[in-house]
Amino acid sequence: MNISHARNHSDTLGIMASSLCLAHCLLTPFLFMAHSGSMLFHNEHPLWWKSLDIIFLGLSFLAVRKSSRTTSKSKMKYAFWISWLLLFIIVINEKLALFPLAEETIYLASSLLVILHVYNLKYCQRKQDCVKH
Q: Which of the listed CATH numbers 2.60.120, 2.30.29, 1.25.40, 1.20.120 matches domain 3-36+49-123?
């Protein structure tokens, strides 16, 4: 498997995982408002739904690890890891309620990862090097 092929797959996985994470975060309030009548007797969200953000975080970790190893620019490596760390902190904070944090921060972190993977896929191929914009 050549480097370009591996990067394409890791960036595609990163785009999908981060986009699904974003959709999951955006849809959660609406889904549970729609089912509020059935939630009167239940205090928690279903376990499978609460575990999705951890699954997406794990998938995005794998994608960031692979993409940061195969990108042609070191700045992209730092951008990937800083963005993933931000997403990790937000998700863990949401689970443990360590400190108050606006819900919108998770939208920014997951969107940033999508943007980075798209940029890396399009402009950071080793054969052409990163295009400066």
A: 1.20.120
Q: For the chain, how big is the Rg over CA atoms in Å?
A: 17
Tokens of 126: 């080793």
Confidence of residue 19 (pLDDT cuts 50, 70, 90): confident
DSSP the chain: --HHHHHHHHHHHHHHHHHHHHHHHHHHHHHHHHTTTGGGG--S--HHHHHHHHHHHHHHHHHHHHHHHH-S-HHHHHHHHHHHHHHHHHHHHHHH--S---THHHHHHHHHHHHHHHHHHHH--TTT-PPP-
Question: Is the confidence at residue 65, as pLDDT, over 60?
Answer: yes
pLDDT band at 84 (very low <50, low <70, confident <90, very high): very high
Q: Which residue has the higher pLDDT, 44 or 118?
A: 118
**Exposed (0-12), middle (13-18) or buried (19+): which is 5, by Cβ within 10 Å?**
exposed
